[in-house]
Automatic annotation (TrEMBL):
Belongs to the MsrA Met sulfoxide reductase family. Residues 205-236 are annotated as: Disordered. This is peptide-methionine (S)-S-oxide reductase. The keyword Chloroplast does not apply. Its EC number is 1.8.4.11. The lineage of its organism: Eukaryota, Fungi, Dikarya, Ascomycota, Pezizomycotina. It comes from Arthrobotrys oligospora (strain ATCC 24927 / CBS 115.81 / DSM 1491). It catalyses: L-methionyl-[protein] + [thioredoxin]-disulfide + H2O = L-methionyl-(S)-S-oxide-[protein] + [thioredoxin]-dithiol; [thioredoxin]-disulfide + L-methionine + H2O = L-methionine (S)-S-oxide + [thioredoxin]-dithiol.
Amino acid sequence: MSSFFNRIARHFSSSSSIGVTSAGGGGSNSTLPANTELATVAAGCFWGVEHIYRKHFKDQGLIDARVGYTGGDQSNPSYSRVCGGGTGHAEALQITFDPSKVSYRTLIEFLYRIHDPTTLNRQGGDVGTQYRSGIFYHSEEQKRIAEDVTRMANQNWWGNKISTAIIGASDWWDAEKYHQKYLEHNSGGYECPLHYLRPFKLPEGYPAEEDSSQSNDSKPAPAATAAAAEEPKAEL
């Protein structure tokens, strides 16, 4: 069933207690810190996606993570308008990361371990195009890696049923301030039950070629390798 009305109810209860834009869709800020890159992904309700990425990549290359809206055809969207499904935006996460500490490949492999990419325009009980699975690449190299990881995950993890869209990054709008680090500030808040780390292992011989940007001393973060496969499902 659609969770639109429940999400709107949470919106009001919470509020009472590529271009990168400021919170709520304000002015632009396209400047990145030196030696950093962006990764933009969508995997359903952005609260849980942000929470699990922050937890697993803290002190392992994640510099910042912002929830927001992308992939739509309207400017300055609000949460209620996006939840209505009429703006075309996806609830998404934009990660600023240090590629010398964590590779883009690792971040995308992790995406396919923390949600179900086989259900088109839904994640669990959250239904609508705003909950679609997507990778919004910022360069041709990111596109190549995203496609390679998707082939691997499709063949080895998800039974050739992946529906994740891989498209070029477009305008980004930060979600309203109270959405940022939502589950850190609201420990009992809503979490999509499909956002957990799955015990998938990388197949032998993958990847066939190392990313050209990844040196020998910048190995994938442990959280996204097979060594982390035994982590309990319930822990976010």
